[in-house]
Design brief:
The chain has one domain. The protein is α+β, with helices and mostly antiparallel strands. It starts with a helix and ends in a 12-residue tail after the last strand. It has 4 helices and 7 strands; from the N terminus they run αβββββαβααβ. The longest helix has 14 residues. Strand 1 and strand 2 form a beta hairpin. The N terminus is likely disordered. Strands 1, 2, 3, 4, 5, 6 and 7 form a 7-stranded mixed beta sheet that branches.
């Protein structure tokens, strides 16, 4: 893996299995696969932590990944639609594109409509005070 490329992507850092990025008004943790480069990610689970202490999940796909999955599923079952409860679709691969999309949602105040709220942020490695 190219370490310089990993470090340059969206200003992120590795924390255990998560690729973490500090955005303006949020922190996002991405479950990037061990064989994936952050710039190439096209399907990833993310945990978003806001300054108010709330935690949110998103499953982020590129348009091409949705198309690939639907074609794959069509071979084994009906694939007339694609959905997931916290799904977010971006045009291009890469953590930096995904961070930009998250930032737009946070800035617009659309977090509750776009992401799934989690009550136990420890599942993404955060420890919150109660």
């Amino acid at each position: 893996m190219n370490e310089d490329k990993i470090r340059s992507t969206a200003g992120g850092r590795w924390e255990g299995p998560f690729y973490c990025v500090q955005g303006d008004g949020f922190e996002a943790r991405f479950a990037v696969g061990p064989d994936e480069l952050p710039d190439d990610v096209c399907n990833v689970d993310a945990w978003i932590h806001l300054p108010d202490g709330s935690g949110w999940t998103a499953t982020i796909f590129t348009l091409a990944e949705v198309d690939r999955l639907m074609h794959q599923w069509n071979e084994t079952r009906e694939a007339a639609s694609f959905w997931c409860s916290d799904g977010l679709i971006v045009r291009a691969p890469g953590i930096s594109v995904m961070v930009e999309a998250i930032a737009e949602i946070v800035d617009a105040g659309e977090v509750e409509g776009a992401f799934q709220r989690i009550t136990d942020t420890r599942q993404a490695g955060w420890v919150t005070e109660n």
